[in-house]
Every structure is written in C-alpha cells, then in structure tokens.
Amino acid sequence: MGLAAKDRIRAKLKEDETTVRLLLAHPMHTGRGKNDTGELIPAEYIQDIRCWRNDDEVLTIKCGTATARNPYFSFQLLGGQLGDKITIRWVDNIGAKGTAETIVG
Amino acid sequence: MTDNSFEQRRTILKGVISASTLALVAASGLLLPQRVLAHWPMDAFNAKTVEDALMALLGHAEFVDDSVVEFKVGSPPSYAVNGASVPIEIQSTLNDIERIAILVEKNPNPLAMSLDFTPAVKFPFKSMIKIAEDSLVIAVISAGGKLYRTSRMVEVDIGGCA
After folding, report:
1. Is A87 an interface residue toward B (CB < 8 Å)?
2. Would you say residue A1 lies in a domain?
3. Is the confidence at residue B2, as pLDDT, over 60?
4. Rounded CA separation B26/B35 (Å)
5. Cβ–Cβ of A69/B85 closer than 8 Å?
6. A3 assigned to some structural domain
7. pLDDT band at residue B6, thresholds of 50, 70 and 90?
8. Does the structure's ipTM exceed the value 0.90?
9. Taking a C-beta distance cutoff of 8 angstroms, is the pair B148, B141 a contact?
C-alpha cells in the first residue's frame, strides 16, 4: 500500500495569512502503469482531499489520476491565528483513508 | 358514484406502487459502495477530451476572454525533464472563485484536479501533476458563473503517466 511513509502537513502564520503545505504519502497508480514483470498495476489514487480550519471546511481538492505520486499541495488561507487547527482528510479510489492535522505555528 | 370511488382507489394503488418502487431504487442505490465517493465527479475525471471533462464538471465549456483577468499556470518551466511530477502554480486576481479545474490536454484523462474554493482560500495554489507528453496545461477558473481560461505549453522529456 505504500503507506509506511507518513502524511506531512505544516501550517505557518505570516502577517495575516496562513500558509498550508501538505505532502501525502501515496503511490497514485493510474491503472495504466506496469510493474517489473509487465503486469498492469491496478489503479490506486487519491480522489478527494478535504481541508478544515478548526470546524470550517475551507478547501476541497478532487484529484484524477494525473496528480503526481506523493501528492504535494500548498495554499494560503486568509487570516487565522496561532493555535488554529488545520485538518486534512483524504480518501482514495479503493476506500483507503488518511487524516493529518497540525496546529498553526 | 361507484365509478368515482373506483377511480380513487386506482389512483391510491398507483401511488403506493410507485412509492414503494422509489424506495426500492433508493435502497439499492444506497447499498452501492460508490456511495462513499458520490461527490467525486467520475464522468469528468474519466472524460477523454478537455471539452467533455469541462462539460461534465462545470456544465458548459465556453470561455470568457477578459484581459482584466490575469492568472497563470505557472511555474512549470516550459520544459520539464520528468513528466511524472511537474510543479504547477496558479495565481489569480479574480474574486468569487467557485471552482478551478486543472487539465492536461494530451493526457489520457485530461482532468487532473478540481478545486472547490471558499473565500478563505488565497492564491497562489501549488501542486504537482503528471504530464504524459508535450502538452498544453490548462487552468479553468469558474467565478461568478463565467469561465476564465489560461494555458501554457509544457514539453517533457520522459512521459509521466506510467
């Protein structure tokens, strides 16, 4: 499953913006690639990523197969303060799930 | 009189039947495993062309060209060695953004990402995508019921859709 590596998330407040950086550990197989013995690797990719700040859902990212392996995202949130909790949840096409959360620092 | 009551009974019977049929359909639908991912627009992500993907995702594929609007699919380098992870960066001065779609024209399924924005999110948005071969990378922003588009040609050395 390639899930040995951990999802990483960082959130940093600078002036009046919170910058969130997110790195998920996921192989993102498209279903078209082949392994060393020439067999097709079944599709396995993240489809839905949701981001909350405290209790508010702020961003939804839907991915197709063209998102790179170990997906990386970076975006800014308006405002925010030290101690805000940023939560990420993801689901892939075969139902595997993951969460990551961090405190804005 | 008798005719009338007969008629009523038929209507009631019909109503009961259709109601139970609906309930059945709903129940069977709810049991499907896809329910978990009901929010994932499968048609859009499986579409084979840019137009089909946009039609499925946003309902139309007509763009407004507005020079006031500036946004870019940026940092790809216009030349990337490895198509398996090409950095992209989206910038915009638009307000009221509802949704952003990122597409790679020559990929087998062009739609790479769809972002649902809330007013709390600010640019730039950065991520990494796969690009199968030399292709236009297109960003479409849906704001205030209109679609704004920009694109950038990216050449890759090693295709990234392995």
Report:
1. no
2. no
3. no
4. 11
5. yes
6. no
7. low
8. no
9. yes
